[in-house]
Amino acid sequence: MGAKLLRISEGKGERDAGPVAPEKLLAGQPQQLTEHFFTNAKENFFCGIWSSDEGKWTLTYSEDEFCYIIDGEAVITDADGHSERVVAGDAFCIPAGFEGTWETVGTVKKFYAIYEE
Asked: pTM for the full model?
């Protein structure tokens, strides 16, 4: 049997909800919802939809991540203090090795695709 096309449709993935890990938290009490849709056979590529309400936390990336902001706004700041505001319609990549912070302004929802060596 051949591989089949997998459509990403909100509300159809495996859901996981909870707070940002306390050791990463810098401000607020953000709650996250991840709706996972796909993991490849090597278990090193993943995609889904992630959302969060207001808060700020530290980031340390061992993976490469493509993001597309579906709704809302966030501010991503690197270890050197350079900040980027991302809003609905923005697409960007966060490379492995990135360290900094993520701040959700209000609420945000993104589509993610993650690759990890």
From this structure: 0.91
The CA distances from residue 108 to 3, 5, 58, 62, in Å, are 32, 27, 16, 22
Query: What domain range is 85 assigned to?
Result: 15-115
Among all chains, which residue has been given the structure tokens 């700020």? Answer: 56
User: Which CATH number covers residue 40?
Assistant: 2.60.120.10
Per-residue model confidence as pLDDT tens for the chain (117 residues): 677 888 888 888 899 999 999 999 999 999 999 999 999 999 999 999 999 999 999 999 999 999 999 999 999 999 999 999 999 999 999 999 999 999 999 999 999 999 999
Can you point out the beta strands (E) in the chain? 14-19, 25-28, 31-39, 45-60, 64-78, 83-87, 91-94, 99-115
**What tokens appear for 15 in the block?**
């859901």
The number of distinct structural domains making up the chain is 1
